[in-house]
Amino acid sequence: MLVSMYNAGGDEVGEIELRPDIFEVPVSVSLMHQALVRQLANARLGTHSTKSRGEVCRTKRKWYRPKGTGRARHGSRNAPIFVGGGVAHGPKPRGYAKKMPRKMRRAALRSALSVKALEDQIVVLDALEIESPKTKEITAVLSNLGLDDRVLILLAERNEAVERSARNLPEVKTLRASYLNVRDLLGHDHIVIPLGSLAVVESILGQVK
């Protein structure tokens, strides 16, 4: 797939061929869904907890005598039917982690990138360099590229100037290319990929022939 390449000023400086084994693969919606569900599940802490009737700190003394009161017999105030008692079948700390083979995870990424490429939502830059961490500078770059929606900027490595510049923009997120994931790909309208980041993506997702 041949796409245009731009500079930070928004001028087209050439064209670049995107690898078909990454950006033109058959799209598998089910595979992307499985990868997204796995990522969301793995992000859950699972720290929810309730106390059972055996863990509630209340007296163990019998509440009232079993006969003569006209009420049903009860042996403990810790029962779930009473206010302040334990919770029946309540949640306990647990793990929600799901497993997914590496080949399937990478295939899901290729599908997501192919969707973005098919919908012309990938913007390739020759380079993204900002002298100082200022929000107005990254805003100017995105404005030159005509991007005013949710944007994901891929970085080849740590770039404090770019990261700090985009930090105050709620619709813009920076992400290192080695941490590319389905959730961020599908959650943003456009993906800005400098050449250095593109090389990282190709080195990770490129299929060995």
List the helices and strands and how they pair.
Layout: E1 2-6, E2 12-17, H1 20-23, H2 29-42, H3 102-118, E3 122-125, H4 135-144, E4 151-155, H5 160-166, E5 172-176, H6 182-186, E6 190-194, H7 195-205
Parallel strand pairs: 1-3, 3-6, 4-5, 4-6
Antiparallel strand pairs: 1-2
Helix pairs in contact: 2-3, 4-5
CATH topology of the largest domain: the name is Ribosomal Protein L4, Chain: A
Q: What's the end-to-end separation, in Å?
A: 19 Å
Helical percentage: 25-40%
**Structural Rg:** 27 Å
Q: List the total number of helices.
A: 7
In CATH, what is the class of the largest domain?
Alpha Beta
Task: Provide the succession of SSEs.
Answer: EEHHHEHEHEHEH
The named CATH superfamily of the largest domain: Ribosomal protein L4/L1
What amount of the residues lies in strands? 5-15%
Approximate shape? elongated
Indicate the mean pLDDT. 92
Short descriptors:
alpha/beta; 209 residues; Ribosomal Protein L4, Chain: A; 2 domains; single chain; 14% strand; six-stranded mixed sheet
Structural account:
By secondary structure, the chain is of the alpha/beta class. The protein folds into 2 domains: 2-45 and 97-205, Ribosomal Protein L4, Chain: A (3-Layer(aba) Sandwich), CATH 3.40.1370; 50-90, no CATH class. It has 7 helices and 6 strands. The radius of gyration is 27 Å and the shape is elongated. The two termini are 19 Å apart. The model has no long low-confidence stretch (mean pLDDT 92).
